[in-house]
Specification:
It is found in: Cell membrane. It holds the Pfam family RDD. Helix content is 57%, strand content 6%. The chain is mainly alpha-helical and 126 residues long. It has one domain. It has a two-stranded antiparallel ribbon. α1 crosses α2 and α2 packs antiparallel against α4. It is globular and about 45 Å long. The mean pLDDT is 92.
Length: 126
């Protein structure tokens, strides 16, 4: 198991955010960039909802979101299997409020990973 760099994790997060934003634009008609929060907070919340659904479903079922797959990362439980939708949803909701992701342990697990019983690993291809 290889612990991925913070840069790789942030790049995967950026890819997932762009996918969610583009999906919200295409499906829900949200403008991008969204209107400022003090004018119309609904647009930002729609993008966040798309992000949470996309990431939670893909990580819960397949072990990797689009961004993580592209950057060679995987979210897994203690057994190495995907964590399932309920735990992935908890993890992604906590990630969305940022602070739990910033506070990390020595092995680079954020509070969102500790709460969900998950870890992010780098997929090493032979």
């Amino acid at each position: 198991m290889e612990i991925p760099s913070l840069g790789r994790r942030l790049a995967a997060l950026l890819v997932d955010w762009v996918v969610a934003a583009l999906s919200a634009v295409a499906i829900a008609g949200v403008s991008y960039p969204p209107a400022p929060l003090d004018e119309d907070p609904s647009q930002t919340f729609i993008i966040i909802a798309f992000f949470v659904v996309e990431v939670a479903l893909l990580e819960g079922l397949l072990g990797a979101s689009i961004g993580k797959r592209l950057l060679g990362l995987r979210v897994e439980g203690r057994t190495g299997a995907p964590i399932g939708i309920p735990r992935a949803l908890l993890r992604t909701l906590l990630l969305s409020i940022v602070l739990p992701a910033i506070v990390m342990t020595d092995d680079k697990r954020g509070l969102h990973d500790l709460a969900a019983g998950s870890r992010v690993v780098r997929v090493v291809r032979a």
